Structure to design on (445 residues):
């Protein structure tokens, strides 16, 4: 049994033990005797396989010292968690990895995915070496950053409508996992700053006070001098999880479109969770704290129980940021579809005709984005189903991402339908570099 096969079998044994534990917990009881024996056997099997894999790893590293890293077969290497070359990145198949993880006893599946299992194990070890939390098999960062192999568009195919351009849909499948993720985030469209490949906890410096000046006259004592003050904006990894269910027949496919579909599905789910957290994450229960939940940002209140958002309120958001001298860079509005619809039907000033607040995705000359990730179920006083609207310099919204994408196989949840669930986990955090860069309304009817 290879090192990759031993690690895959260990994961399968742990999954079986976890299923026994979850079943007993769901039924609010302890193990029966048979379950105790099976649980102990599975945990013992996992420990034994881990020890064997660790020894195999030691031998492989010793051999690598002499022969060189087998994952670096050429001079052209990429930065990333597994050190894959461009050719190896193009060769990596998520479908093969999923097929091997879901069938640890299938020798053919293990052999077919030997490269993917080795690369994933290398990325996993890299995350562990950097102080990360090991959970499953890690898809290397360079694989996530690369376009889906074989899905690049050809100019002759889509460049001319009569030559096939009319038959090609506009989609995101040709992009990398990371590009798809970014394109689906409303905060990224607004200009949020993404920090990738982070290692350990990160502290971003922030200036909290400016130096002061004073006037002096000849022969007199100099005025009091002050210097800038700084603090730090911490980013600590918080784990977001999503899952994709794959049928047995789907995993048997080798189509490039299926490969792209799986990656796109995971990216779409991840994007929804990260976007919602960036906008309104509670900062509790393992979730990041979003803009609306951060105390100290600018605030514009409409009424005791909320009220209709008028032209004055939109402009007041701008004023709240500008008064703090934070109206720099590309300023953007974000609200939900309900408020966008109302703003399109509301004129800017009572004595104007045909000048709606929201016009051509702009408000008062600033870019405006509508996303239903912005909450519309807020309460204030007796007001319910109230919406939020944000304005600010979204470049001061930091989104940090650590390591690769962890994949854990769950063959039990939907086993009766022949479906395997793959749980994807990614370490992410959100922080505001400057509070004054944002202002919000949270009580719009």
């Amino acid at each position: 049994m290879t090192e990759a096969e031993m690690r895959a079998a260990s994961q399968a044994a742990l999954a079986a033990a976890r299923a026994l534990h979850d079943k007993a917990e769901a039924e609010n009881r302890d193990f029966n005797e048979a379950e105790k024996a099976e649980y102990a056997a599975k945990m013992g099997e996992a420990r034994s396989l881990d020890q064997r894999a660790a020894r195999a790893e030691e031998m492989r590293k010793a051999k690598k010292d002499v022969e060189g890293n087998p994952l670096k077969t050429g001079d052209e290497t990429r930065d990333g968690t597994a050190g894959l070359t461009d050719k190896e990145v193009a060769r990596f198949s998520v479908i093969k990895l999923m097929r091997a993880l879901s069938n640890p006893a299938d020798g053919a599946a293990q052999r077919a995915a030997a490269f993917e299992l080795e690369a994933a194990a290398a990325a996993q070890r890299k995350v562990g070496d950097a102080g990360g939390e090991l959970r499953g098999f890690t898809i290397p960062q360079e694989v996530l950053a690369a376009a889906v192999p074989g899905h690049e568009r050809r100019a002759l195919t889509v460049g001319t409508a009569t030559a096939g351009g009319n038959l090609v849909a506009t989609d995101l499948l040709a992009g990398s996992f990371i590009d798809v993720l970014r394109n689906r985030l409303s905060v990224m469209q607004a200009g949020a700053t993404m920090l990738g490949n982070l290692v350990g906890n990160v502290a971003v410096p922030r200036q909290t006070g400016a130096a002061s000046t004073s006037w002096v006259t000849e022969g007199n004592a100099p005025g009091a001098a002050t210097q800038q003050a700084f603090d730090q904006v911490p980013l600590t990894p918080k784990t977001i999880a999503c899952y994709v269910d794959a049928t047995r027949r789907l995993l048997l496919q080798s189509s490039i479109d299926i490969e792209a579909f799986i990656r796109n599905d995971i990216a779409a789910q991840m994007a929804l969770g990260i976007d919602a957290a960036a906008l309104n994450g509670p900062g509790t229960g393992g979730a990041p704290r979003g803009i609306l939940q951060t105390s100290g940002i600018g605030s514009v209140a409409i009424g005791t129980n909320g009220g209709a958002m008028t032209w004055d309120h939109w402009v007041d958001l701008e004023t709240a940021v500008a008064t703090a001298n934070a109206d720099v860079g590309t300023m953007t509005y974000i609200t939900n579809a309900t408020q966008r619809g109302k703003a399109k039907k509301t004129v800017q000033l009572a004595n104007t005709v045909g000048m709606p607040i929201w016009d051509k995705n702009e408000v008062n000359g600033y870019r405006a984005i509508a996303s239903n990730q912005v909450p519309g179920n807020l309460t204030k006083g007796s007001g319910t189903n109230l919406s939020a609207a944000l304005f600010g310099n979204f470049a001061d919204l930091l989104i940090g991402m650590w390591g690769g994408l962890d994949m854990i196989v769950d063959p039990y949840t939907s086993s009766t339908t022949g479906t395997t669930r793959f749980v994807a986990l990614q370490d992410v955090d959100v922080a505001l570099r400057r509070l004054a860069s944002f202002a919000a309304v949270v009580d719009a009817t």
